[in-house]
Write a structure and sequence with these properties.
CATH topology of the largest domain in chain B: Ubiquitin-like (UB roll)
Largest interface: A-B, 29 and 33 residues
CATH class of the largest domain in chain A: Alpha Beta
Order of helices and strands of chain B: EEHEEEHHHH
Helix content of chain A: 25-40%
Number of helices of chain A: 11
Number of helices of chain B: 5
Radius of gyration of chain B: 15 Å
Number of domains of chain A: 3
Radius of gyration of chain A: 19 Å
CATH architecture of the largest domain in chain B: Roll
Oligomer: heterodimer
Structural class of chain A: alpha+beta
CATH architecture of the largest domain in chain A: 2-Layer Sandwich
Number of strands of chain B: 5
Chain lengths: ~290, ~150
């Protein structure tokens, strides 16, 4: 590997100071993306900063404003967390799909977000839960909607010297659920040809959809919300036909490319099918049968 | 080359090493410490041949920087036996013939040790899912799965 220095700060203040060092500085959590990128010269660094020893970045707790997930907290910790499994089902789905068990033990949800791959498995669900990104840098802390975090493949709004501190996922209402599915040619260990996360909040008495959020992976330069599909659902009584229409509408938000993993046409079809399936899983999780 | 002085526990023994910042844990274990049981396969986190336990959880040691191991506890395949006696999992792999060339075996043994610690009696599906991060090009996996079942159920 090309030469670089290593630092493992134990406080946020120390990390921010180190982020201001000269040369190319890269922060990492699990390292499962960055170390491979450094080995293959896809990214360079003069200094890498290991964020895992900073307590704020290891948080995983429910606060009054929702679930706080420290940016360095591992996918496996999130995957096995009881609160995540009870309230954020789609996030439990997604964190159990990232790479292998070995990768999940190291890879962090925050790292998956900052790597900003259009195919990142955890991002669509975070978007459907309307996650807020807490960013800390030399000029203090700022919060932005995660939906505004991504600029392009591998590119985020993080400015020089800034790190993602944590994600906050508002507490979902009763009678709501989320789900994430992706399609890969084998059963495990691959990058999504397409991925869809759905979240719905349904009135249990009338079966009216109060709120719907749908987000897509691997079908645009960044993870995207399928806003058209959301409006198809909201305010309507949920039926099989409505779910099918939402699947059709979700395709309109996909702008996929054809590459080695699949054709654009195939990806659009996957979005249609995965949207329907994730919505059905949400209903099952809420306990509503059609 | 920036170097770091690290102290860590490897297979129950406290160790001190001077490592380059860019070294992986895999390189440190194999090239610096002579623990060549841990293998280098793909070197990018796909094959699992380099799997070790880091603070009790499996990790691909090719994707861990050596300085990250400072203060941590590492278990490699050399640490699975006790006083020259194979662990029950190692013994089951031998009895079931859960290996051919043996290159992937250290990684499978570590992953299986982690699996059975968390889930002492996994189903076949759970075994296959939890070992998906370890590739074997010889066995076709069936004998490995049988070995894990034998280790779990006797």
């Amino acid at each position: 590997m090309p030469s670089f220095d290593y630092a493992a700060p134990t406080s946020l203040a120390e990390a921010v100071k180190l982020m201001g060092s000269s040369g190319t500085v890269r922060a990492f959590a699990g390292g499962t993306d960055l170390i491979d990128q450094l080995k293959t010269n896809r990214r360079n660094a003069d200094l890498v900063i290991d964020l895992k020893r900073i307590p704020e970045l290891q948080k995983l707790e429910m606060g009054s404003d929702g679930l706080h997930i420290g940016a360095a907290r591992s996918c496996s910790d999130v995957h096995h967390d009881a609160t995540v499994n009870r309230l954020y089902g789609g996030l439990a789905d997604a964190t159990g799909l990232v790479g292998s068990v070995q990768i999940q033990n190291r890879a962090a949800v925050g790292g998956n977000v900052c790597n900003a791959a259009p195919s990142g498995d955890t991002t669509p669900n975070l978007l459907t839960h309307e996650a807020v990104a807490v960013i800390t840098g030399p000029s203090g802390t700022r919060k932005i909607e995660l939906a505004d975090f991504f600029v392009g493949p591998g590119q985020t709004v993080l400015q020089s010297g800034e790190i993602l501190q944590e994600l906050i996922l508002p507490k979902p209402p009763e009678s709501s659920a989320s789900a994430y599915l992706r399609f890969i040619p084998r059963n495990e260990m691959d990058i999504a040809v397409a991925g869809v996360s759905s979240f719905i909040h349904v009135d249990p008495a009338t079966k009216t959809v109060r709120k719907a959020r749908i987000a897509l992976a691997s079908v645009a330069p960044t993870p995207v919300r399928a806003r058209g599909a959301e409006s198809v659902l909201e305010g309507k009584v949920i039926t099989e036909a409505l779910i099918a229409s939402a699947g059709d509408a979700a395709v309109e938000s996909a702008t996929p490319i054809t590459d080695v993993r699949g054709s654009a046409e195939y990806r659009r079809e996957l979005v249609r099918v995965l949207t329907r399936r994730t919505l059905s899983i949400c209903l099952e999780r809420i306990g509503i049968s059609l | 080359m920036p170097t770091k002085h690290i102290k860590f526990t490897v297979n129950g023994v406290e160790q001190e090493q001077l490592v380059d910042s860019t070294w992986t844990l895999l390189e440190t274990l194999r090239d610096k410490m002579g623990l060549t049981g841990t293998k280098e396969g793909c070197s990018n986190g796909n094959c699992g041949a380099c799997t070790v336990m880091l603070d009790g959880k499996t990790a691909c040691s090719c994707l861990v920087l050596a300085p990250e191991a400072d203060g941590r506890v590492v278990t490699t395949v050399e640490g699975l036996e006790t006083g020259g006696k194979l662990s029950a999992i190692q013994d089951a792999f031998v009895k079931e013939g859960g290996l051919q060339c043996g290159f992937c075996t250290p990684g499978f043994l570590i992953s299986t040790t982690f699996l059975l610690k968390n889930n002492p009696h996994p189903s076949e599906d759970e075994i296959r899912l939890n070992l998906a991060g370890n590739l074997c090009r010889c066995t076709g996996y069936d004998k490995i799965v049988k070995a894990v079942e034998r280790a779990a159920n006797g």
